[in-house]
Structure formats: C-alpha cells, structure tokens
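Following up on my earlier thread - several people asked me to post the actual chain instead of describing it. Fair enough. Here it is, all 207 residues.
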Amino acid sequence: MISGTEFPSFSANLATLSRLPFSRSDLLPAQPEILWRVEWGVVRTITWNDDGTVVTLGYWGKGDVVGQPLTRLQPYQIECLTSVEVTAIPSHRWHQVLDAIVAHSWQSEELLSIVRYERVYKRLERLLTWLARKFGRSVATGELIDLRLTHQGIAELIGTTRVTVTRLLKELEAQGKIVRQQRHYIILCDSEVLKHLRADDEGLTAS
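Reply from S.P.:
Thanks for posting it. Predicted structure:
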C-alpha cells in the first residue's frame, strides 16, 4: 500500500499511472491536472474553517471522480475511509469521465440541500436516506448502509456536534427507525426514513 508520506516521490509521474491502492486514512494527492476515479472503496473530501472546524464535502464510492480540479476550496483533502483503489485520470482524458464529473456536481447539490434543513434531526434523517441510496444494500430487515460511520464523521457532514448526533441516533433507534450494528446502520423496513428513500428512488426513476 502507498502511504501519505510517499506521495512526493511519485507526484511528477501521476499521469503515467493507472490504478493505485491506498490504505484506510491515507490521503489521495491533490494535483491540479489529475482526477481520481474510485474503482473500489470509499473516500471523503474535506476542508476546514479558520477555527479548525472540519467540513465534510462529500462521500464518494465506486465510479465517482474526485480531485483538486473539481473545487476551488483551500485547504482540500481526499481521505480514504476504507482501503481504496483509484485510477489517475490526466487532464487530456477528462472527456472520458464527463458523466462522472456531472454526477459529482449533482451529488454536491444533494448534500448541500440536506445541510440546509433548519432542524438537525431532519438533516440526519435525510442524510441516512441519502447514504442508504448511495451505499445501501437490502437485507431482511431493511436497508443496510454498507459503510462504517462515526458520529464525528456524520457531525462534520451535517454541520453539528458529535454529542448531538449521538443523541439523535439514539432517538431514531428508540423510535424503531434504525438499528445499529457496530458502526453500520440498518434502516428498518417500516420506518419513515425508508419511505423517504423509496419515494426518492421513484422520483429518480420517473425523471
């Protein structure tokens, strides 16, 4: 695996690379002429404010593209949440991933709409719906979000505190809307959250 400390040694040759493996917690190098297409695993893009508050910009999985050319934010980092395999896409081949570039913009808008809900409870509920649609798989009791989530990571995505996320997740569990399995969550079949997911899917199909 390639660690973050080794990035400078191959940065000049990124355009010649095809697929690269990275380990959990590694940072993908942010280069102005390179996009990364995720072939396997999950990454998140982050920035942080002047006061040091981390802001999660998105969670990205198989088929998504990420990279410095897609943002004007500084600082900007791409963190591996799992073991990851990515393909380096140099600028002269970006036309080959136009669909993924457009999808990147759409996803950013979806997440922005989620964090603009006034009530944090609603942000969390809609985020779980979004995560289930992107990373979920059906199980007997509902929809399993196949991603290890920390309360801090969720808080950084919806703009609240870890303590608040912990409290609200407990409320959702008490209401029978979700079940927690270690750091995975199952949205239960008869929950309002899953109804939102199905309604969203029907809307996407209709469009």
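Residues 1-16 have pLDDT under 50 and may be disordered. That should answer part of your original question.
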